[in-house]
Every structure is written in C-alpha cells, then in structure tokens.
Amino acid sequence: MKRSLVYFLALLLSVVFTSPASASGPYDSSSVHFAQMMITHHQQAVLISGWALKQGSNPSVKKFASRIIGEQSPEIAQMKKWIPAGEMMGMEMTMQGLVDPADLAKLKVARGKKFDGLYLVDMTLHHQGASSMATPLLKSSNPEVAALCKSIVSAQSAEIKEMRRIMITGK
Q: Structural domain of residue 65, as residue ranges?
C-alpha cells in the first residue's frame, strides 16, 4: 500500500477509538461533532482528488478534482478552528459517503478512463453523504456553522450534477 492510503486508514482508525465531541465556545457539541466528521470526510475527498490529477485522463475530471482540492482545503482549516484545543477527533457513527478501504484500494491502482469512472462514482456517493451530514445543521444558531453547511449542501449538489454530466458526456 502507498503511504497516503496507509495514512488515511490510520486516520480513520484513530477517530473510531477516541472520545466524542464536546461543546466549546460558540460551537455547540453538534457543530463540533459535525466538524470532526466532516474534516475527515473532506480529507478523503482531497486525497482522492489528488490522485485524480495524477491518475485520471479526462481533462474535465482533472479540472473538477483541482476545484475540489481548492474548495475543501480551506473548509478543513475553518472547521479545525471549531474543535477545542487538544480535543481528539471523535466519531460515534459511520460517516455517510466515505469511500471504504476496498474501493480506495481499487481507486489507488486505477489509471486513465478506469480511474475517471471510479472517481466520479465514488465522489458522487461521497458528495451525497456530505450533503446528508450537513443538512441537519442548516438551521444552526451559529451563523458560521449554518453558512458553511449551506455552502456544502449547495456546492455539492451542483457538483453531483456536474459529475453526472461528465459521466454521460465525458465533458
């Protein structure tokens, strides 16, 4: 296994065996818990989008992957600020849409058109999961949390349509 896949799997295992989210400052426990899960979720999207830049062959897929990295990396940094200092990443439930280790392994070795197809299918499911995770916090009393969740749901819904278009037309 390559180092990035091993790192990601280790990250997933570490979040399974740590404490649940706690409330701190302006972020209630549901916001902190959401951030803890969505950070890991976004990190996986950034990881496999990096693979798309190297392993994919469709220019539309590469452009899309580059945009995912550019959009989700700042969101990761934003959500990290919601988590109290020293707070371990916590996860009490399975994250929706996370690409499982077997599918990650297939994606990691795929090249060209095969990679493009797997990436688009995996990322569509990934985005659907992220939207489902963000939807409950659309009405958060914290304006920053509500705004980020609205942005995630809106962007990922549009990107799902874009990925479906690429799957159908190749463009």
A: 28-82+96-169
Amino acid at 30: S
pLDDT, the chain, mean: 87
**Residue 19 to residues 11, 54, 77, 123, Cα–Cα distance (Å):** 14, 36, 21, 28
C-alpha to C-alpha distance for 46 and 144, rounded to whole angstroms: 22
Contact 115, 54 (CB under 8 A): no
Measured CA to CA, the distance from residue 68 to residue 59 in angstroms comes to 14
- Domain CATH for 107: 1.20.1260.10
Q: pLDDT tens for residues 11-49?
A: 443 443 333 444 446 899 999 999 999 999 999 999 999
Q: What's the rounded Cα separation, in Å, for the pair 82 and 33?
A: 9
Q: What is the pTM of this model?
A: 0.84
Q: For 149-152, which contacts have Cβ atoms below 8 Å and span 24 or more sequence positions?
A: 149/34, 151/75, 152/38, 152/75
